[in-house]
Amino acid sequence: MPVTSSDTMEIRTSDDIVRVRQKVRDLAVGIGLGLVDQTKIVTAASEIARNTLDYGGGGTARVEVIEEGFRRGVRVTFEDEGPGIADVTRAMQDGFTTGGGLGLGLSGAKRLSNEFSIQSAVGVGTRIMIARWKSG
Amino acid sequence: MDRIPILKMGSALLVTIQVDMQDRLAMALEEDLTTRIAQTGARGVLIDISSLEIVDSFIGRMLDSIAAVSRLLDARTVVVGMRPAVAITLVELGLTLTGVATALDVERGMALLGERIAGAEGFDAGDIL
Q1: What is the DSSP pairing of strand A71-80 with strand A125-133?
Q2: If 0-12 CB within 10 Å is exposed, 13-18 middle and 19+ buried, where does residue B37 land?
Q3: Alpha-carbon span A14 to B58, nearest angstrom
Q4: Residue B125's pLDDT is what?
Q5: Confidence (pLDDT) at A36
Q6: Least CB-CB distance to A102: which of B61, B83, B89?
Q7: Could you say which of A20, B23, B63, B100 is the most buried, measured as most Cβ atoms within 10 Å of its Cβ?
């Protein structure tokens, strides 16, 4: 799948979450994503970025514009080298949390995205990809 | 560190969130608000989020928490000005802010606060009698 724009950003502090959000919004606006779609992908990115910081001990976000045929989308891939998630299926359920949150981060971000994938290995880290396509 | 300004309007406190809120700022707001409620004896808190482009679960939790803490200090909270796209996204995220009263804009929020404060006072008086 062709990638027409790619930026990798560090997530080390909560200020970085704000920067990732702004970058995702800029790209979403750039490809002409509608307001609701923009809001959804930026919110999903914010949720996962916070997980990367809080549970993964920080990491990176690769923010990209992707193309497939005539359609374009925004894809964000988060990677950390944190403790990993022992039970991904359980972590994807609403209300599951090991921290102080509401446990909506992963499941909520999946609902807000057109594409979602997660790979995690205990002691190695976690990679989560979210993407939203411009519809129509 | 920046602080979100808190204005006093009659017996209510008014907060307009105008920046892409960072975590530290959000936590400072919760502390500042509770301090001001205690100092001023405010009966209501109006939080205007019309400038917020997104509300994620962190901000949602903060709004819930402010409403709960304010309630313990005898002040009612109304969140106003949520953008339609934010409302759609919040529901899909699974966050419906059930602990927070909302109104479309500041004017309707103030009216709602007025009713709630008057209602609570009426109830108290009736209770004593």
Answers
A1: antiparallel
A2: buried
A3: 11
A4: 43
A5: 97
A6: B61
A7: A20
Q: Let me know how long chain B is.
A: 129
Q: Encoding tokens for residue A19? A: 């920067």
Element (H, E) at B87: helix B84-93
Residue pair B15/B67 in contact (Cβ under 8 Å)? The answer is no
Question: Is residue A119 within a helix (H) or strand (E), and if so which, with residue range?
Answer: strand A115-121
ipTM score for this prediction = 0.89
CB A84 within 8 A of CB A120: yes
**Number of C-alpha atoms within 13 angstroms, CB side, residue A72?**
13
Q: What single-letter amino acid sits at A115?
A: E
Q: Do A21 and B58 touch (CB under 8 A)?
A: no
> Measured between beta carbons, which residues in chain B are less than 8 angstroms from residue A108?
57, 92-95
Report residue B80 as tokens: 């106003």
Q: Which residues of B touch A101 (CB under 8 A)?
A: 57-58, 61
CA distances from A71 to A125, B1, B89, B117 (A): 32, 43, 23, 53
Neighbouring residues of B10: CB distance < 8 A, sequence distance ≥ 6: none
CATH superfamily membership of A3-133: Histidine kinase-like ATPase, C-terminal domain (3.30.565.10)
CA–CA gap between residue A98 and residue A123 (Å, rounded):
16
Residues of chain A with pLDDT under 50: none
Domain annotation for chain B: domains and CATH numbers: 6-128 (3.30.750.24)
A25, A36, A104 member nearest B93 (Cβ)? A104
Report the distance separating Cα A40 and Cα B39, nearest Å.
39
